[in-house]
Write a structure and sequence with these properties.
Layout lengths: L5 H29 L5 H23 L10 H24 L5 H7 L2 H13 L6 H17 L4 H4 L5 H26 L5 H16 L13 H27 L2 H8 L2 H15 L11 H41 L1
Amino acid sequence: MSSITPTQSNLKGFLLSLIAAVMWGMLPVALKEVLAAMDATTIVWYRFLVAGVVLWGWLAFTGQLPKLASAARRTQGFLLIASMGLCANYFFFSYSLNFVNGETSEAVIQLSTLFLILGGVVIYREPFLAVQKFGTVLILCGLLLFFNERLFELGSLENTQTLGVLIVVVAAVTWTLYALLQKQLLKDYTPVQILSVIYVFSLVVLMPMVSPSTVMTLTGLQFALLAFCCLNTVVAYGCFAEAMNCWDSSKVSAVLALAPLFTIATLKLTVFFVPDYAFSDRLGMLSLAGAALLVIGSVLTALVPWLYQRRLQRQAAAAASVDSVA
């Protein structure tokens, strides 16, 4: 019998999810600085390199290396497409920061929550409940409020902000593709095994397009931030994977939806200490309210499946108790 109580498991899951949310919230801030001296492809390549070395070392040490040759063709195909999806997500999210600041990228990437729900409804025939529809409306209203001062600018395809937002939307779509396929791949592999394969695939695919030597041109601060981005990949996904092992996935997703708040808080703090800091949108009250609606909508849509499942379980238990009495 496990010595970990449900309370300890809940606390562990919450703390791990919170660490992942904080790490992902701070990530676009660090990436924006490094992009001033290194292209997005090379940054992503270094992130995959460090994470791949750590994961493959761990899997080799624990004797859990993924067995790919013996996998079914369908599984191999899913793994290939998932690898393409997550590789594209990393690249597009990083590349978008050439055109938008951290607050905007982290707000728009919340569309991945909505896309994942819609994908689950269409592909896996999951229910689309009333509260989820309400959460969807909050996400869309939140985006409109967030961009309230820039809606006219976003109407022009020649605007760099518009291009950046569109790239983040593509990043959200590609992440959704990876997430939907991971649900199938988890039948054969652990999350760490899946990520280890994706990292190697991405290293090979990106190799012809990277310039590793540019790391020598970074300032001390930029190198430290690149190191943070690399460790972020390992720590955030490690915490995320472990949280999924000890907590409900819907609860984990709800906590991860807080990431935009940590991005905004990081940049607000940066601007406070460095008033001339250039890479911040300096959001007004309406935009902040929009960000709050985005988070609330994402949390609602993430938690509803867990609440729905709990209700079904209670109904089943009640029915079973009635049958036993009869």
